[in-house]
Amino acid sequence: MGLADDADREKLTRMPAATLSKRLQMVIALLGVMSGIAVSIQFGEKSPPGYFLSNALFYWIPQLVLVIFLLILRARASVVAGVSFLMAAYLWAFATWDFAEEQGIGEAGVWIYYLAGCITGTIGAVASTVWLQHRPMYCAAKAAGVGVTATLAGLLIVMGPMVYASGLLSNHADILMRKSIYLRGDW
């Protein structure tokens, strides 16, 4: 009940909670990185002939830079996994928006939004990694949640005002309104 209990309690509070094995976390992180590569390849294939490799690399290199920063800072594998899956989803959303130009709702300079979002997303991911280094008790899911939340906050700092300023929301509202009028037969 004396010093031994206090020393044991201190050891327990310093030990990180392990809900997933380190190997499983690394496999999930690798799957996250590979999902970003897969999305880059998928949208690189939609490029004009001869531009596949350059466009696929354009889509994926900002994500690679983010992962390199996280590896240099020795981020937890769960953080790398969460951030990689989030960035793959962000790339998918961006590329969907970019290729929507064929349908008349995209914009020509939308790639600037992608690069700016990747920069602020990287800042959020790096900040979460530095913050988590002082909190070893967080379990893998909680650490991944912190990384994803900080990265998403970084993405939204840039994307929110840019999407609003570009009028994309109003374009989608107009398209949805036209479709609903067409479906109701009020035309």
How would you portray this structure in words?
The structure is a single chain. With 187 residues, this protein is mostly helical. It has one domain (19-184). The chain contains seven helices and no strands. The protein has helices at residues 3-14, 22-44, 52-72, 77-99, 111-132, 140-166, 168-184. The termini are far apart. The mean pLDDT is 76.
Main attributes of the structure:
7 helices; 0% strand; mainly alpha; 187 residues; single chain; 78% helix
Secondary-structure map:
Elements: H1 3-14, H2 22-44, H3 52-72, H4 77-99, H5 111-132, H6 140-166, H7 168-184
Helix pairs in contact: 2-3, 2-4, 3-4, 3-5, 4-5, 4-6, 5-6
Summarize, please.
With 187 residues, this protein is mainly α.
Element pattern in H and E: HHHHHHH
Radius of gyration: 21 Å
Question: How many strands?
Answer: 0
Structural class: mainly alpha
Shape: globular
Q: Tally the structural domains.
A: 1
Give the low-confidence spans.
none
Calculate the mean pLDDT score and round it: 76
H/I helix tally: 7
Biggest sheet record: none
Termini separation: 81 Å
Fraction of residues in β-strands: under 5%
- Helix content percent band: over 70%
